[in-house]
Amino acid sequence: MRHCFLYRYIVKKDIQGLSYSFTKREKAIPTVLSHREAKSVIDNLPGVHWLIASLLYGCGLRINEALSLRIKDLNLENYTVFVFRGKGKKDRYSLLPRSLKSKLLRQIEKVKTIHNKDLADGHGLTSLPPALHRKYGNAIKDFSWQYLFPSTTRCHHPYDGYICRHHLHESAFRKQLRKATLEANINKRVKAHTFRHSFATQLLLSGTDIRTVQELLGHTDLRTTEIYTHVIGSRFGHTVSPIDQQ
User: Fold this and answer.
1) Does residue 193 have an active-site annotation?
2) pLDDT tens readout for residues 203-216
């Protein structure tokens, strides 16, 4: 439209028959970690950051999805985790690793201690999207509504003004992840999202159906999930490199 305006009103020359098309953004193949590499990085993370990374890798969560988990989102009987309003504002369920149960129970007890202190101080509200606290009232003081990874301090809600406890900030995890990657001697650029990529590739390598992987990741389009088949090389089938032929 700006080009048409330029030619029509500035250059005083009309142009016809031009058809523009948007350039397609190249899809980069994501960086992934092997199972050994992922475990090595995770094991170098301290305290609660170990648990956050384990959920990223074990459930295929995005970092904001993991930090936004509330106590009520965990089902330790059926080993599922509920992701509320993930990317695209879609709800979904994912796997909850059985090996994390004891660590999750300990974290829940820590949250309960923090919440009980907040209640004793006359607070105890969790943070919610704008105006929802008026809809739910004091129900958001219930323990089930509390974040699994609460912030170390209380704060004023940025929109509604009430005193609440938000979840940990992503920057704290990012800082610890950089240190853990160096300590694990991993020569790759590891971000929080790398664990989600690694989750998908490990499932495909173990023979999980791609439709199941799509559902667990919350992808709307199967083509988004199919990029992981390029990562693991499954698109080459049983093709043998010439140098490996006898």
Assistant:
1) yes
2) 988 888 899 999 99
The first and second tokens of residue 204, run together, are 């495909």
Say which of 49, 62, 133, 165 is annotated catalytic.
62
Of 143, 169, 159, 137, nearest to 68 (Cα)?
Answer: 169
Q: Are strands 155-156 and 163-164 parallel, antiparallel or unpaired?
A: antiparallel
User: Within a 10 A sphere around the Cβ of 181, how many other Cβ atoms?
Assistant: 22
The domain 35-110+168-232 is placed in CATH, from the list 3.20.20.70, 1.10.443.10, 1.10.3720.10, 1.10.10.10, at 1.10.443.10
Nearest to 215 by CA among 201, 227, 206, 225: 225
Give the DSSP H or E segment for 119: helix 101-120
Could you tell me the pTM of the whole model? 0.83
The pairing of beta strand 163-164 with beta strand 74-75: unpaired
Q: Is 196 a catalytic residue?
A: yes
pLDDT tens track for 1-18 = 555 666 677 777 766 666
Is 62 among the catalytic positions?
A: yes
Concerning whether 230 is annotated as a catalytic residue, the answer is no
Backbone angles phi, psi at 81, to 5 degrees: -130, 135
Q: How far apart are CA 150 and CA 141, in angstroms?
A: 14
For residues 35 and 207, what is the distance between their CA atoms, to the nearest angstrom? 15
